[in-house]
Amino acid sequence: MSVKDVPEFAILGHPNEGKSSVVSTLAENDRVRIGPYPGETVHCQTFPVTIDRTEVIRFTDTPGFQNPKQTLRWFENYKGSQDGMVEAFIEAHRDDPSFRDECELLSPVARGAGIIYVVDGSRPVRGDDRAEMEILRLTGRPRMSIINCKEDDTLYLDAWKNEFRRTFNSIREFNAHRATYRERIELLECLKSVDQDWQEALTRVIHAFKRNWGHRMEHTSLIIVTMVEEILGATSEGTLGEGADPKALRAELEKKFLNKVKGIENNAHADIRRLFKHNIFNVKLPRNSLLNEDLFSETTWKFLGLSPKEVAVAAGVAGAGAGAIVDTAAAGLTFGIFSTLGGVAGAAAAILGGSRIAGLKLKGVRLGKDQIIVRPAPNAQFMYVLLDRAFLFYSSVINWAHGRRDYNDHDKGEAKDAGVIQAWDKETKKICNEFFKKTLAGTGRRRDEARTAMVNRITERLRQV
């Protein structure tokens, strides 16, 4: 697509109506400056949307109108060519500070940009608004109106729609703080109907958006599956030196192991966040979200995987003083294999390991003389917990609009997340279990086949979120 074929839309409106938030969400760019005070945008700034290194569409953030009634008066008295009206206004007022913002905001319109006019639907229609609408009508440019309801206040919604029907080609309700990917696509679809000359270019844009979104889900699936593989293969090993305390070494290795697992999960989540172009937002989840729980906490396992009975059993095994006890006749040492982690962490991570004392066996595994190894046990439930948390994170990321900035206090008090894995069909779980078994078995063709099937099925499930 050549530069001249790239559609441009100028986001216009009164100060502090949410224009920058709309630009940020439509362009998937959370670096768009958004402030709480009117007039913070004083210069036009264009934000291109690039897919596969090709610019497909651009959105231009503009200052708000300052003197709409005086500007309208000039437009109504203009006697020149209709096609050159906007350029003539800018030329006539270029050096007049009273019309600085009007000249700036109309500059992308003068170069051929379409118009997206944004209003805050939670307030009543005013005289300045009608003047702005009439100015934009007189430009003759393709135009859409967006009612950006910042809150759930719809008292003035019908009044805005009635006003817009007189001067705009298309009307949309669009909450820039809550808009999903699907709603962004629907808005682009509506832009196609604004002007027939834009249909071909916007059809290409929408196709590129959908194709790119599919690629992101495929990439997300690879990130999740790779994360599970790395965690299932994670170990923490240490050698007992002369006179060393086995209990202290084991506790140290368990801590390292848990930190390693958490690090792998955190890195995977960060990769997903970057994939969906969240540069500033670090997904501060709702207060009650399960993703705020520790990976190895009892709450995580109870809500995301284990049944109440399984949680009770795990908690009993892991409870202080009730761990799996192994006494060695030679040294008289006691090893609570699960107990040191607390909660159901021991059952969750299913730690396998202990002091390798000569002649000692633990569950059929020959233990050596001077080494402690900590690794996940072959428990598929651990994999499902990781998958559930990954899906919850993915859902949070894709449903956080880029124009949203209430990072610290959003959705306070909302209900805890419900796990998604429990609702998966038997065939999906069969693919997951096969992947789990083949991953633990090592390398080989069947493992590669199981991995491919797993990636494909996870991609399908991501499309349904």
Structure description:
The chain has 465 residues and is an alpha/beta fold. It has two domains: 3-194, P-loop containing nucleotide triphosphate hydrolases (Rossmann fold, 3-Layer(aba) Sandwich); 211-463, no CATH class. It has helices spanning 19-26, 68-77, 85-93, 100-110, 127-139, 157-167, 181-192, 199-232, 246-275, 298-304, 308-318, 345-349, 380-398, 426-441, 445-463, and strands spanning 8-13, 45-51, 54-61, 114-119, 143-147, 170-173, 236-239, 325-327, 334-336, 361-362, 365-366, 371-374. It has a six-stranded mixed sheet with strand order 2-3-1-4-5-6, with helices on both faces. Strands 7-12 form a two-stranded antiparallel ribbon. The radius of gyration is 30 Å and the shape is elongated. The two termini are 32 Å apart. 35% of the residues are buried. Mean pLDDT is 78; it is low at 309-369 and 410-416.
In short:
With 465 residues, the chain is of the alpha/beta class. The protein has 15 helices and 12 strands.
Annotate the secondary structure layout.
Elements: E1 8-13, H1 19-26, E2 45-51, E3 54-61, H2 68-77, H3 85-93, H4 100-110, E4 114-119, H5 127-139, E5 143-147, H6 157-167, E6 170-173, H7 181-192, H8 199-232, E7 236-239, H9 246-275, H10 298-304, H11 308-318, E8 325-327, E9 334-336, H12 345-349, E10 361-362, E11 365-366, E12 371-374, H13 380-398, H14 426-441, H15 445-463
Parallel strand pairs: 1-3, 1-4, 4-5, 5-6
Antiparallel strand pairs: 2-3, 7-12, 8-9, 10-11
How many extended strands? 12
Please report the number of helical segments. 15
Q: Would you tell me the structural class of the helices and strands?
A: alpha/beta
Outline type? elongated
Mean pLDDT: 78
Order of helix and strand elements from N to C terminus: EHEEHHHEHEHEHHEHHHEEHEEEHHH
Cross-sheet strand order for the largest sheet: 2-3-1-4-5-6
Query: Ends: how far apart?
Result: 32 Å
* Main beta-sheet annotation: 6 strands, mixed
Low-confidence stretches: 309-369, 410-416
